[in-house]
């Protein structure tokens, strides 16, 4: 056993070299830029930093960013759970097509997605004349930004839940139905408790992408100050105007949101691993028997 163990273990210098490489990569490409953002944001002191965040345009950008994320989140949850449930629990025609459509935003550039929405809802687009006749504004307005963000973020929850629900199987749902449970009772008492941590993990990822999205939102927003600028767009405008303090102050808010997301993601991963380990411990005697 010791001989086979030595054959599969790497020498110490290899392990430490790989660890140093990984930590160095994280420091230079994640840690150092993060520190630089806060250093530049606070370069003229805390009062200037806070003043930059109190600007009406900055507050509008922060509010719009959070508002769009909150608007797309319920749609992402409903679509993600429904799509994952259908794919994992049922066999039907078009199943592979549905999986392909879920992956579509990963394959299409966000800028291209924004241009597609302009071709659909713009003044000269397919639905443009009808929208104009009914005084409905989508492009260069908040509704278009919500649609673009929804397109970019909708795969995250479904992609997180599909493998989880497939691994769980459908025996518990079938047992609940056989015992007389209705569809809603089965979902709330059996399916949802089994997927709650995976669902929360997908929500965290989708929310992080919604708050940080730039390409598609930039195309459909129109960059109207105080109205259609999210935080990423606000950072770009201030940086192009050489307003370093304002740009890095807004960027620091995004960085803080990213750190909060990372902490929440880590906690959820830990809980998922803990529950999986407990489930395996419970099932181990049954498999042995």
Keywords:
globular, 14 helices, single chain, 289 residues, mainly alpha
C-alpha end-to-end distance:
28 Å
* Most strands sheet: none
- Radius of gyration equals 24 Å
Estimate the global geometry from the Cα principal axes: globular
Classify the secondary structure makeup into a structural class. Answer: mainly alpha
What is the H-and-E element order?
HHHHHHHHHHHHHH
Low-confidence stretches: none
Please count the helical segments.
Answer: 14
Number of E-type strands: 0
Short description:
The protein is built from 14 helices and no strands. With 289 residues, it is mainly alpha-helical.
What does this structure look like?
- This protein has 289 residues and is mainly α.
- Helices cover 82% and strands 0% of the residues.
- The protein has helices at residues 2-8, 12-41, 46-54, 56-89, 95-107, 110-121, 128-133, 142-153, 155-168, 171-178, 183-212, 215-221, 231-240, 244-288.
- Helix 2 (12-41) packs antiparallel against helix 14 (244-288) and helix 6 packs across helix 8.
- It is globular.
- The two termini are 28 Å apart.
- The model has no long low-confidence stretch (mean pLDDT 86).
């Amino acid at each position: 056993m010791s001989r086979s163990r030595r054959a599969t273990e790497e020498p110490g210098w290899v392990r430490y070299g790989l660890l140093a490489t990984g930590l160095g990569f994280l420091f230079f490409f994640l840690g150092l830029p993060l520190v630089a953002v806060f250093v530049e944001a606070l370069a003229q002191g805390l009062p200037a930093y806070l003043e930059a965040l109190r600007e009406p345009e900055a507050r509008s950008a922060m509010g719009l960013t959070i508002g769009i994320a909150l608007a797309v989140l319920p749609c992402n949850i409903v679509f993600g759970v429904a799509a994952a449930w259908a794919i994992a629990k049922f066999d039907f025609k078009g199943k592979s097509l549905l999986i392909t459509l879920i992956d579509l935003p990963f394959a299409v550039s966000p800028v291209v997605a924004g241009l597609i929405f302009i071709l659909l809802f713009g003044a000269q687009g397919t639905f443009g004349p009808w929208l104009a006749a009914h005084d409905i504004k989508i492009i260069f307005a908040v509704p278009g930004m919500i649609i673009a963000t929804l397109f970019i973020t909708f795969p995250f929850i479904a992609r997180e839940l599909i493998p989880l629900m497939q691994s769980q199987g459908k025996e518990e749902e079938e047992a609940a139905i056989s015992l007389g449970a209705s569809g809603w009772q089965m979902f709330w008492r059996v399916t949802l408790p089994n997927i709650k941590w995976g669902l929360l993990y997908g929500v965290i990822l989708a929310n992080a992408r919604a708050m940080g999205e730039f390409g598609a939102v930039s195309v459909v927003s129109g960059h109207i100050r105080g109205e259609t600028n999210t935080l990423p767009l606000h950072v770009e405008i201030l940086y192009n105007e050489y307003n370093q303090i304002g740009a890095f102050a807004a960027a620091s808010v995004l960085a803080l949101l990213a750190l909060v997301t990372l902490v929440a993601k880590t906690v959820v991963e830990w809980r998922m691993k803990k529950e999986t380990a407990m489930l395996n411990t419970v099932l181990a005697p049954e498999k042995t028997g």
